[in-house]
Specification:
The chain is of the alpha+beta class. It has helices at residues 4-8, 12-22, 43-62, 65-89, 245-251, 278-297, 317-329, and strands at 38-41, 92-98, 108-116, 123-130, 136-139, 141-146, 151-160, 164-175, 182-196, 218-233, 255-262, 266-272, 301-306, 310-314, 340-346. It contains seven helices and 15 strands. The strands form four sheets. A five-stranded antiparallel sheet has the order 1-9-8-4-6. A four-stranded antiparallel sheet has the order 2-3-7-5, with no helix packed on it. The protein has a four-stranded mixed sheet with strand order 14-13-12-15, covered by helices on one side. Helix 3 runs antiparallel to helix 4 and helix 6 packs antiparallel against helix 7. The protein is elongated and about 120 Å long. It starts with a helix and ends with a strand.
Length: 347
C-alpha cells in the first residue's frame, strides 16, 4: 500500500506555512529550492476554517459530543480534500511547443501535450499556468477530466511585450478539486529560451522613409522578363510556348519571342541605431523590421545595414529571418543621437 499520499495530503497546511516561512513561491525566477507542493486557501476555505474554529471552541466549552462529531466531520473533509487534490495533480506530464516565429505584442500560440501517467486514476478539473515572467502575459489552460493513461492537447497563448531573448522557467499545475477550499499546486521546471522578434506592421507609404518605389523596370538586354525584346528564327531546342504565331503567319516561318531582361529590384534598409530615447529607439526597430518584411513581400532583394553590422542584400524567407534575428537582438551604439530609419534603392 502506498502511504505517501495519505501522509502528505492530510496536512496541507504544512505546505502552506512552509511556503510562507521560506518566502519562496513559484514565480518570476524560481528559487534554488521549490516546495514540491504549494497551497493557497480560497475565500470559501477561509469561511470553512472559521466555522470549524467556532464549532471547535463550542465543543470544548460545552463538552457536547454532537459538536465533537461535527468537528470531526469537518476535519475529515479537509483530509479528503488533500487526498483527492493530490491524486489529481500527481504524475501529470506536459510538453510545450512554441510557434516558430514570435513577434512583440502579437499573441503567440503554444501547443501543450498533457499526459496523465497514472494507469487507472483520472485527473479532474486542473489548470496549467506559466511561471510569471516579466513582460510576458499568458492565459492558463484548463482540463476538466483526463483519464488514467490518457493524453490531451491544449492551446496556450503568450503575449511578449518586449523583443529579445526571454527565458521561460516552467509550468504550474493547480486544482481546486474537490471542494474548492484550497488551491493546490505542483510546479514543474521546464526551462526554455524564446527569441522574440520586433513588431511587424503594414507599411502603407514606404516612400516617407527616404526612398521611392521604383516599380518594375527592364533593361534593354535579352533575358527572362515580360517585355518582348525582339524575334528570331525558331529552332528545335526552343520551347513552343514562346512562338509568336501572328508574326510566324505573316512571314510563313516560325519565329520565337525574345524577352527583355527585367531590372532586379533591390533595397537596403539603413537603421542608424544611435543611443537616444528608449521609446523612439524601439519604434525605429519596429519600423526597420516592418520595412524588411514589406519589401520582401513585394519581391525585392532586401538588405539591412546598421551601425553594428550588416545583412547582405538577398531574397527569400531565410534572409528575412536573418534580418529579424539581427533586429531582435540589436542594441544602441555608444554614440548619442536620434535613431532613424531610411530606405535606399539600389541599381
Amino acid at each position: 500500500m502506498n502511504l505517501r499520499p495519505a501522509l502528505s495530503a492530510p496536512l496541507p497546511w504544512l505546505t502552506f506555512f512552509g511556503g510562507r516561512i521560506s518566502g519562496k513561491t513559484p514565480g518570476k525566477r524560481p528559487a534554488f529550492f521549490i516546495f514540491p507542493r504549494t497551497l493557497k486557501v480560497t475565500k470559501e476555505g477561509k469561511r470553512f476554517i472559521g466555522i470549524l474554529f467556532v464549532i471547535g471552541l463550542a465543543a470544548i466549552n460545552t463538552g457536547n459530543n454532537l459538536l465533537y462529531l461535527v468537528v470531526a466531520m469537518l476535519l475529515s473533509l479537509i483530509i479528503i480534500s488533500g487526498i483527492m487534490s493530490e491524486a489529481t495533480i500527481k504524475k501529470l506530464r506536459v510538453k510545450r511547443e512554441l510557434a516558430p516565429r514570435i513577434y512583440k505584442n502579437t499573441p503567440a500560440a503554444a501547443r501543450l501535450e498533457i499526459e496523465n501517467t497514472k494507469k487507472y486514476l483520472p485527473s479532474y478539473s486542473f489548470r496549467i499556468e506559466e511561471f510569471p515572467v516579466e513582460a510576458v502575459k499568458t492565459e492558463p489552460a484548463y482540463v476538466l477530466k483526463l483519464p488514467g493513461g490518457g493524453k490531451t492537447l491544449r492551446t496556450f497563448r503568450y503575449v511578449f511585450e518586449k523583443r529579445g531573448v526571454f527565458k521561460l522557467y516552467g509550468l504550474n499545475f493547480t486544482t481546486r478539486f474537490p471542494f474548492g477550499l484550497f488551491i493546490k499546486g505542483r510546479p514543474e521546471k521546464m526551462e526554455q529560451e524564446v527569441l522574440v522578434y520586433p513588431s511587424v506592421r503594414k507599411i502603407k507609404e514606404p516612400g516617407i522613409y527616404g526612398g521611392a518605389n521604383s516599380g518594375s523596370s527592364s533593361l534593354q538586354k535579352k533575358g527572362h522578363g515580360s517585355q518582348i525584346h525582339g524575334l528570331r528564327d525558331y529552332t528545335i531546342q526552343d520551347d513552343s510556348r514562346y512562338i509568336h504565331w501572328k508574326a510566324s503567319a505573316r512571314t510563313r516561318k516560325l519565329l520565337r519571342k525574345e524577352f527583355e531582361k527585367e531590372k532586379e529590384r533591390r533595397v537596403a534598409i539603413v537603421f542608424d541605431n544611435l543611443r537616444g530615447e528608449q521609446q523612439l529607439f524601439e519604434e525605429m526597430v519596429d519600423t526597420a523590421a516592418s520595412l524588411c518584411s514589406h519589401f520582401m513581400e513585394m519581391g525585392y532583394g532586401v538588405g539591412l545595414k546598421t551601425l553594428s553590422g550588416e545583412v547582405a542584400v538577398s531574397y527569400g524567407a531565410s534572409n528575412l529571418e536573418r534580418m529579424l534575428h539581427n533586429l531582435a537582438l540589436i542594441k544602441p551604439v555608444e554614440k548619442t543621437g536620434t535613431p532613424s530609419v531610411k530606405t535606399v534603392f539600389l541599381d
